[in-house]
Specification:
With about 250 residues, the chain is an alpha+beta fold. The chain has six helices and ten strands; from the N terminus they run ββαββββββααααβαβ. It has helices at about 20-35, 120-145, 150-155, 160-180, 190-195, 215-225; strands spanning about 1-10, 10-15, 40-45, 50-55, 75, 90-95, 105, 110-115, 210-215, 240-245.
């Protein structure tokens, strides 16, 4: 088991890195050994959501400046695994949005720790349906791009019947492919965790989770409760030093 200690100005947080996500584990360990994170701040903090750090540009933080775009000159392939999700205390990799990063590749250094909230069963049922529809929509959009020339030709010919037939075909294909990629919606384990421990279920399947807090969840709570300025930067800088736990 690989454990890392994030020492902050508000206290220490210990996190266990998952062996199931070796690319993220090994990269995080490399940066820790290089002291890459030392002196950086938690530059983005949102109450009842998460705390984010890992931007090297924040190592000597300037008043009023917003951070969040810095990092090494590489990204990491997504390692989004079934059964590993955004429960409270999860350690996950930040990334650029789908419009420029459809492969969901992770930032080379920026990470966040989940706080989230506890959900009622009715909320989770509704959220599960939304996540199922979102998964199918993403596959459908990809299929539409593959059939773009065919669709454009039908539009030029005003072939409405052909368009409707193709749409029905792509919806069915998208639904099948989405199911093949993994369970749609929320599993019973996710529902149980999110209704008791809490977290951010709407991020599942979108970002790579590669570890979890084992000690210091109270420190995460303190940080996520801190007062913030415009851009979600804490009013008082919360610096960190990250080291391997002996």
């Amino acid at each position: 088991m690989t454990t890392v200690k994030i020492s902050t100005t508000l206290g220490d947080i210990k996190v266990r890195l998952y062996d199931e996500t070796p690319l993220h584990r090994d990269n995080f360990l490399k940066l820790v050994q290089e002291k890459y994170y030392d002196g950086t701040i938690f530059h983005r903090v949102i109450k009842d959501f998460m705390i984010q750090g890992g931007d090297p540009d924040s190592r000597d933080p300037q008043p009023g400046r917003q951070y969040g775009v810095g990092g090494p000159d590489y990204t990491i392939p997504a390692e989004i695994k079934p059964g590993i999700f955004h429960k409270r205390g999860a350690l996950a990799a930040a990334r650029q949005g789908d419009e420029v990063n459809p492969e969901k590749r992770s930032s080379g250094s920026q990470f966040y720790i989940v706080w989230g909230q506890v959900y009622k069963q009715g909320q989770l049922a509704q959220l599960g349906k939304q996540m199922e529809m979102q998964a199918i929509q993403q596959v459908f959009n990809s299929l539409v791009q593959q059939h773009r020339s065919e669709i454009m030709q039908m539009r030029r010919e005003k072939n409405q019947a052909g368009l409707m037939e193709l749409q029905d075909k792509l919806v069915a294909e998208a639904t099948q492919k989405a199911k093949e990629q993994g369970p749609l919606g929320l599993s019973e384990e996710q529902k149980q965790i999110y209704s008791t421990v809490g977290g951010t279920p709407f991020l599942d399947g979108q970002y790579t989770v590669f570890g979890e807090v084992t000690e210091g969840l109270d420190i995460v709570e303190k940080i996520q409760n801190t007062a913030t300025l415009r851009g979600d930067r804490p009013k008082e800088d919360i610096k960190m030093v990250v080291s391997l736990e002996e």
